[in-house]
From TrEMBL:
<comment type="similarity">
    <text>Belongs to the glycosyl hydrolase 43 family.</text>
</comment>
<keyword id="KW-0624">Polysaccharide degradation</keyword>
<protein>
    <submittedName>
        <fullName>Glycoside hydrolase family 43 protein</fullName>
    </submittedName>
</protein>
<keyword id="KW-0119">Carbohydrate metabolism</keyword>
<keyword id="KW-0378">Hydrolase</keyword>
<keyword id="KW-0732">Signal</keyword>
<dbReference type="Pfam" id="PF04616">
    <property type="entry name" value="Glyco_hydro_43"/>
</dbReference>
<keyword id="KW-0858">Xylan degradation</keyword>
<dbReference type="InterPro" id="IPR006710">
    <property type="entry name" value="Glyco_hydro_43"/>
</dbReference>
<dbReference type="GO" id="GO:0016787">
    <property type="term" value="F:hydrolase activity"/>
</dbReference>
<dbReference type="InterPro" id="IPR052176">
    <property type="entry name" value="Glycosyl_Hydrlase_43_Enz"/>
</dbReference>
<keyword id="KW-0326">Glycosidase</keyword>
<dbReference type="InterPro" id="IPR023296">
    <property type="entry name" value="Glyco_hydro_beta-prop_sf"/>
</dbReference>
Length: 341
């Protein structure tokens, strides 16, 4: 993403603000939390932010993360355990730079960690690493997933056991550079796409081995209430990055960040492949440029994990948080304001 635009209301660190929730981790910077419940515990798979001394630019170069830590908690509000380094960029054979937002899945005794990373040609692809322990350490495969590109993998296993990966992010996440699985340009933004359908997040089934795509990634199209795809100029609603999928009341809730308008939105469909109909905002802008989340059910309640920049006031040094999420009886989600007024 372009993380250079700090001049929004969302990022005004000078105003006196009260945050809805406290940071979950205070001794290192963490972001992009993908939460899952394994063996009755919550495990969190975030990015590990640090200050590499790289000046902010439109390419997101200052997000120069080089390892992952995994965290767990037995209860919401209880202590958070840091399980240490689970994967280091130096142990990934195809690595160039920048370990961005990861996610994880479990199948038949193995945990699969999916991670975006630039390859040696500076092109984002998605890798996979495995472990027998949800807290790692993880061992990376020798090559990225064949046919993968861009960033922000989010992996969802449906109630029928089929597993899907959603991925993609525009601007610094490079999704706009790809068409039909081929890199077709080196454009930095989607900004010349105003009256065309917006770029879509990608969705693809994973093979049973969890390490390969089962076919070509498809568009996870978001439609408006008239059944028309959202347009490129619709920056308040179009997909930008940071997707997530959860199933509620037999409907598929596709949730995502709008990037340069700093919203978390949701769109609902009848199939994990989409299309999804835009329904609204689920979280207003946090402090900091980026907004990225995950949603889980734990002990009968629903929670959203997210991040902001409460600890640092700097857009590339973030901290993860959690708060409750409410599904209304009519299928909508109650809007969360990350600040207390
Ligand atoms: O953390 C780096 C990038 O920033 C993530 O991949 C995006 O979702 C945004 O949060």
């Amino acid at each position: 993403a372009n993380k250079n635009d700090t001049a929004t209301a969302a990022t005004d660190t000078t105003a006196k603000v009260k945050f809805l929730s406290p940071p979950l981790v205070k001794d290192i910077y963490t972001a992009d939390p993908s939460a899952h419940v394994f063996n009755g515990k919550i495990y969190i798979y975030p990015s590990h932010d640090y200050d590499a001394g790289i000046k902010e630019n439109d390419n997101g170069d200052h997000f120069a993360m080089k390892d992952y830590h995994i965290f767990s908690m037995d209860s919401i509000g209880g202590p958070v355990t840091d399980h240490g380094v689970a994967l280091d960029v130096k142990d990934i054979p195809w690595a160039g730079r920048q370990l961005w937002a990861p996610d994880v899945a479990y199948k038949s005794g193995t945990y699969y960690l999916y991670f975006p990373l630039k390859n040696k040609q500076d092109v984002f692809q998605i890798g996979v690493a495995t472990s027998k322990n949800p807290a790692g350490p993880f061992k990376a495969e020798h090559e990225p997933i064949a046919g993968s590109y861009s960033i922000d993998p989010a992996v969802f296993t449906d109630t029928d056991g089929k597993t899907y990966m959603y991925f993609g992010g525009i601007w610094g996440g490079q999704l706009q550079q790809w068409a039909n699985g081929k890199r077709v340009n080196d454009s930095k933004t989607d900004l010349k796409n105003d009256d065309a359908p917006a770029l879509s997040c990608k969705v693809v089934r994973l093979k049973d081995n969890m390490k390969e795509f089962d076919g070509a990634p498809q568009d996870a199209v978001i439609l408006d209430s008239l059944g028309k795809p959202l347009l490129g100029k619709d920056h308040d609603r179009r997909f930008f990055e940071g997707s997530w999928m959860h199933k509620y009341d037999n409907k598929y809730y596709f949730t995502y960040s709008t990037g340069d308008t700093h919203l978390l939105c949701y769109a609902v469909g009848d199939s994990p492949m989409g299309p999804f109909t835009y329904k609204g905002v689920l979280m207003k802008p946090v402090q900091g440029w980026t907004t990225h989340h995950s949603i889980i059910e734990f002990k009968g309640k629903w929670y959203i994990f997210y991040h902001d920049t409460e600890l640092s006031g700097k857009t590339h040094l973030r901290n993860i948080k959690v708060t409750e999420l409410t599904h209304n009886a009519d299928g909508t989600i109650a809007v969360i304001d990350p600040f207390i007024k």
